[in-house]
Structure formats: C-alpha cells, structure tokens
Design a protein that fits this description.
This protein is of the alpha/beta class. The chain contains ten helices and 16 strands. It binds nicotinamide-adenine-dinucleotide (NAD).
Length: about 350
C-alpha cells in the first residue's frame, strides 16, 4: 500500500505536541514537508523530527505535486486561506479547529472539498475520544434528556507532557486579519466571537452529544477584561432543543486544571456525566459516569488511546476510503454557524 504523503503548515505548539508525533506513528503515512512563516522555526522543527523539506511560504509546500494531504495547523485567522489554497491544489485537508472564522468562508470550503471529491476534516479530537464516544452511545440509548448542562473552565490544558520537547522561536508570528462573520457585531461581540470560536470544542462536543438546537439565548459577563493576572471572559448560552434545554457555560477566569464536562438528566432518574481529559494528556480518555436510581456505573478509563492519535489515524483511513470523517467539514461549518448564533443572541 502506497504511503499517504503529508505536508504540514504551522509548526507551533499543537503541531509539535500532537500532530507530528501522531502522523509519525502512522505506518501508512509519510511526513515529508513542513512550512511556517517563521522559517527559522520550520527549519528547527524539521531538523528535530527528521522531516526532509521545510519552507517559509505555505504556497511552496502546497504546490508540491508529490503531496497528497495537508495539515493546516496555523493560527485560526489563516485557516480559511490556507485550506482554500490546499483544496484548490487538489489536496485532502485536515485543518485544526475552527474550520474558518465565519460561516460563509466555512461554507465555501465545504463546497470546494465536495466539488473536488476531497476529504476535509476539522480538528475536533474529542469526537475520537473513546470515553466521549461511550457517553454518546449511552445517551442515545437513554433517549431525550429533560435537562442538560456543560461547564468549560479554560484552565491549564497542557497537563504536563515532558515526552516531546516544544521548540519555540523569537520570530514574529504573522498577523492575518481576522475575517469576522458578516453580521452586525459590536466590537465586544467580535472579541467574544473570536474567543468562543477559539474554544469551540465545547460547541462541537455539545453538538456531537445532543445534536443541533432550535433556538439560542446568550449572556456574557465581560470581554477581555483583566482581573489581576486573569482575563475575565465568561459566556453562557441556553440551547433550546424543543423538549429540553442545554446550558453551555464557559469561562477563562480559572487558575485550576482544565475542566470540561457534560451532564444530562433523563426522565427515568438516570444522570449521565462525562468529563473530558486535560487536552494534552496522553493515555487517557474521558471519564463517564451513569447514575441510575438503582445502580451506578463509572468508566474511569474506557481505553488508553489518545484522541489526537485516533483522529489522525481516522483521517488517513478516510483519505484511503474516500469518505468523510466524524469531524467533517460539514460538522465544522455547523459549529461556526452555532457560534455565530450564540454571539448574535447577545444583542
Ligand atoms: N485541538 C486542540 O485542542 C487544539 C489545541 C491547541 C491549538 N489548537 C489549534 O491549532 C492551531 C495552532 O495553534 P498553536 O497553539 O499550535 O499555535 P502556535 O502559535 O503555537 O503555532 C501556529 C504556527 O502557525 C504559524 N503560522 C501562522 N500563520 C501562518 C501562515 N499564514 N503561514 C504559515 N505559517 C503560519 C505561526 O508562525 C506559528 O508558528 C490553532 O488554530 C488552534 O486553535 C487546537
């Protein structure tokens, strides 16, 4: 079987801590090139990981006919332009979340991938976590909840990962202008939008577990205000599913470990709770607890597979089989659309 030849754009934290090691581990793929506008960083990372080619301009990397798939791991505002160029160049794309920074751009990318028969997958790795997958299975079997809640405390998400050193650089990160939604947002709404979209795992996992709401009501406490050394951003949305409400609560004002959970209460008295692991912790999956009136079940470790690795493996599988992944471009588009609705609901 021919190896899938891969190029990466963006050589920063998530490339080094998650995707490069995961791609390297996959025997059906070969990581042959890396680009970063900070070309010194591209060179150091390429050398450290024995990646044969490096570039400062992503156009040069993507134009290489020898590549089959591109991983877009640059900062959020440049996802659209890099992904668009990669799809137009006939390459399958894995793009870190979010797919794009407004729904028209996201829609365009989904249409481009579909037109060309290319795989477009978005980096919502929680959909690949065996614990989250178990929670979804249990939830589907329990039927519709009467009430649901999710809390996301954006604390320390690195969780300590000494296994892979992280190479940094003093070169300036390029500034790409943020392409805001074509909605009448105030400056405060724009800041809140960029923030919640940057943390859109909560939106995506909520949609994975509960589906798409009919209506949204939101409130925000403040936008980018400093309290001591913490930036205070808090955002809550109530998603109305017709037969139940889901409260999404998100804050950055938190010094503790990263915390993210989803709770659903069912008419029978059953309560299902799943806690996502600290983002970069390996060898662990979401914890799942199902309390019924007569007995409780707790799944501390549904497995030891790392969601980032499973995500990369399933992307290559999708490329081989010409099919969508569970975090397809279409799911990424629906996430951006919901983020827009959540912020629009503030006015
Ligand atoms: N799935 C997750 O849990 C998770 C976690 C962290 C980050 N991310 C996402 O990954 C992406 C990267 O985040 P990061 O933390 O690695 O950021 P980072 O700043 O450490 O790295 C991004 C790199 O992209 C490069 N870059 C930016 N624009 C570029 C361009 N136009 N051409 C070439 N290179 C360019 C920068 O120079 C930088 O080195 C973001 O979209 C972020 O939302 C996802």
């Amino acid at each position: 079987m021919e190896k899938i030849r891969v190029g990466i754009v963006g050589a920063g934290l998530i490339a080094q801590r998650a995707h490069i090691p995961s791609i390297m581990k996959n025997e059906g793929a070969s990581l042959v090139a890396l680009a970063d506008s900070r070309v010194g960083l591209a060179e150091s990372v390429a050398k450290a990981w024995h990646i044969p080619k490096f570039y400062g301009d992503y156009h040069d990397l993507i134009s290489d006919d020898a590549l089959d798939a591109i991983f877009v791991l640059a900062n959020d505002p440049s996802h659209y332009e890099i992904t668009k160029f990669a799809l137009e160049s006939g390459k399958h794309v894995f793009v870190e979340k979010p797919l794009a920074t407004n729904s028209s751009d996201a829609e365009e990318l989904v249409a481009e991938a579909q037109k060309r028969g290319l795989v477009l997958s978005v980096g919502y790795m929680k959909r690949y976590d065996d614990g989250i997958r178990l929670a979804k299975q249990l939830m589907d079997a329990l039927g519709a909840p009467v009430l649901a809640e999710s809390v996301y405390l954006n604390g320390n998400w690195l969780g300590g990962d000494p296994q892979f050193p992280y190479i940094t650089s003093n070169e300036k990160v390029p500034l790409t202008e943020y392409r805001y939604p074509k909605l009448n947002f105030t400056d405060e709404q724009k800041a809140l939008f960029a923030w919640i979209l940057g943390l859109s795992h909560q939106i995506d996992t909520a949609r994975f577990l509960f589906g798409d709401p009919k209506r949204v009501v939101s409130s925000a406490l403040s936008s980018n205000e400093k309290k001591g050394d913490l930036t205070v951003n808090s955002f809550t949305s109530t998603l109305d599913y017709g037969s139940f409400l889901l409260n999404l609560e998100l804050t950055s004002a938190w010094k503790g470990d990263f915390t993210e959970y989803y709770i659903a209460c069912f008419p029978s008295g059953a309560v299902l709770r799943t806690d996502a692991p600290i983002v970069l912790l390996r060898n662990t999956t979401a914890r799942v607890e199902l309390r019924r009136p007569d007995k409780s079940e707790v799944y501390e470790h549904v497995g030891f597979r790392w969601s980032f690795e499973v995500e990369v493996n399933e992307f290559f599988e999708a490329v081989r089989q010409h099919k969508d992944t569970v975090s397809s471009g279409r799911e990424g588009l629906l996430d951006v659309q919901l983020a827009e609705k959540m912020v629009a609901a503030l006015s």
